[in-house]
């Protein structure tokens, strides 16, 4: 899947491109509306993530011109403009969804997945590793006939480690992804949720475990 990200804050643009690339998207980034329009008109993107307040052309004008040119690529607006009428303006211009700033990485990714599904570009509903399956629709962790319902934070942690099994995910990556950039949450909170997730994996007798590597982070691997 290929995404175009348009955001005039260089730090946020860099972070957004990194987030999507880590989650297996191809992401191109631009910092103004004129470039966003030119790139989007190529028709090479599966989805667009646009800031509204940008130099040269704002996001709403970009979407209006795309729709007038019969470009139907789905659009998610990101904006600090949070009044209801402002959201309505964006949706009426032709956007598919609207996510106000500040936002969590997990919600951003969920909104993009939903946006792409509506255009018949499906992200798999199941993430699997060695028989363990995470159902993204029901928030259940399953192994054979057994299942455990996860809390929201447990689900987000499980999703991250199942997307990259046998790779280390640091506590800081969990915090940034799930709670956002400006949170005061510390690593002890991550440990509590991972402890609960381990118990649920044991309850369904899955042959995997979440291993802690001192000084590095957590990794999903086969149970020894």
Verbal overview:
This protein has two domains: 116 residues, Response regulator (Rossmann fold, 3-Layer(aba) Sandwich), CATH 3.40.50; 97 residues, Orthogonal Bundle (Arc Repressor Mutant, subunit A). It has a five-stranded parallel sheet, with helices on both faces. With 224 residues, the protein is an alpha/beta fold. Helix content is 41%, strand content 23%. It is elongated, with a radius of gyration of 19 Å. The two termini are 36 Å apart.
What would you give as the CATH superfamily of the largest domain? Response regulator
How is the main sheet built?
Answer: 5 strands, parallel
Write the CATH architecture name of the largest domain. Answer: 3-Layer(aba) Sandwich
- Rounded mean pLDDT score: 87
CATH class descriptor of the largest domain:
Alpha Beta
Oligomer: single chain
Estimated structural class: alpha/beta
Order of strands, widest sheet: 2-1-3-4-5
* Count of spatially separate domains: 2
Principal-axes geometry comes out as elongated
Index terms:
Rossmann fold, 41% helix, four-stranded antiparallel sheet, elongated, alpha/beta, single chain, five-stranded parallel sheet, 224 residues, Arc Repressor Mutant, subunit A
In short:
This protein has 224 residues and is α/β, with parallel strands linked by helices. 41% of the residues lie in helices and 23% in strands.
What's the topology here?
Elements: E1 2-6, H1 10-22, E2 26-30, H2 33-40, E3 47-51, H3 59-68, E4 75-79, H4 84-92, E5 97-100, H5 105-117, E6 126-129, E7 132-135, E8 140-143, E9 146-149, H6 152-163, H7 171-179, H8 187-203, E10 208-213, E11 217-222
Parallel strand pairs: 1-2, 1-3, 3-4, 4-5
Antiparallel strand pairs: 6-7, 7-8, 8-9, 10-11
């Amino acid at each position: 899947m290929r995404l175009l990200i348009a955001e005039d804050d260089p730090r946020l643009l860099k972070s957004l491109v990194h987030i999507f690339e880590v989650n297996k998207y191809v992401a191109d980034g631009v910092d103004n509306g004129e470039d966003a329009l030119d790139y989007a008109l190529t028709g090479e993107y599966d989805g667009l993530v646009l800031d509204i307040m940008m130099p040269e052309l704002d996001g709403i004008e970009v979407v209006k011109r795309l729709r007038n040119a019969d470009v139907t690529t789905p659009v998610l607006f990101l904006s600090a403009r949070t009044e209801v009428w402002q959201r309505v303006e964006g949706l009426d211009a032709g956007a598919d969804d609207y996510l106000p700033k500040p936002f969590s990485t997990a919600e951003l990714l969920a909104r993009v997945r939903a946006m792409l599904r509506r255009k018949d570009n499906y992200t798999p509903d199941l993430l699997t590793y060695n028989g363990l399956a995470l159902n993204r629709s029901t928030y259940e962790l399953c192994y054979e006939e057994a299942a455990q319902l996860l809390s929201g934070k447990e689900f987000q942690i499980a999703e991250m480690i199942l997307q990259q099994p046998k790779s280390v995910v640091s506590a800081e990556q969990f915090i940034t992804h799930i709670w956002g950039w400006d949170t005061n949450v510390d690593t002890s909170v991550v440990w509590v949720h991972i402890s609960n997730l381990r118990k649920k994996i044991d309850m369904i007798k899955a042959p995997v475990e979440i291993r802690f590597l001192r000084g590095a982070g957590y990794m999903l691997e086969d149970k020894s």
